[in-house]
Specification:
By secondary structure, the chain is an alpha+beta fold. Helices cover 22% and strands 28% of the residues. The radius of gyration is 12 Å and the shape is globular.
């Protein structure tokens, strides 16, 4: 995350707050928000140019949300 531009870090921090407050489907209005096929996982873009994305998942039956990827769109695990 340290390699991300400051503005993207701010956007990611806002996303984390939305996830904490509203759960894994909370950022439904974020750019390109969507559920990843076949998983309890989601993603959204942190920038308009699609360069930075965040992916997160939930454990079945668990209340914990784990953000498992934040980085460039090219390296996203979907």
């Amino acid at each position: 995350m340290e390699k991300m531009p400051a503005a993207v870090q701010v956007s990611f921090s806002l996303l984390v707050q939305v996830l904490k407050t509203h759960g894994p489907t909370g950022p439904y209005q974020w750019m390109n928000y969507g559920k990843l096929k076949g998983k309890q996982a989601y993603h959204c873009h942190l920038t308009k140019n699609h360069k930075w994305v965040a992916c997160w998942c939930i454990e079945k039956g668990a209340l914990q949300i784990e953000v498992y990827y934040v980085g460039s769109h090219q390296g996203a695990p979907y």
